[in-house]
Amino acid sequence: MGIEKLEKKLPEEIISIIDDEAAAVSISRQEAISRLMHSVTEKKYRVENELLKSQVKDLLRQISMKDDEISYLRGELTSLNKGLTRLAENLVHNNTDLNEVQSLLSPLKQEMTTCFNEVKLIQERMEKNDRNTYEKYIPIIFTGIFACLLVIFLIVSKVFG
Description:
The chain is mainly alpha-helical. The chain has a domain at 66-160. The chain is 87% helix and 0% strand. The chain contains five helices and no strands. The longest helix has 65 residues, at 29-93. The protein is rod-shaped, with a radius of gyration of 33 Å. The chain starts with a helix and ends with a helix. The mean pLDDT is 80.
């Protein structure tokens, strides 16, 4: 907007205040209005910049939380894998009985339940965020892994049951 158009829209009281301030610092009315416009736009951009910085900070915090959740699930999956490895080794050596297999499977069932609950929580959070990133597919991958583990469990149960 041109300075002339702005002068026409401003009330006389404000123009007289601008004239007084311009006279105090020995500049023209146009220069004073120009400085005022620059000051207003600078303040607007500064406020917008601060808002964007706080949004970035929130997003970084959310990413950190997601990384922590992924690390936790990786740890759970590792311990689950170790348990299944022990179970498979014992089955291969055929030196186990049904009670030992059941005792090995009960902690695995608990871990699987915990992991399923964690996957559901993450899935709900991701549906709320509705992002199109790779994180969207993590619950599906874990569900597939757990489905495979369930099939292994059923096979082992059939063998010893």
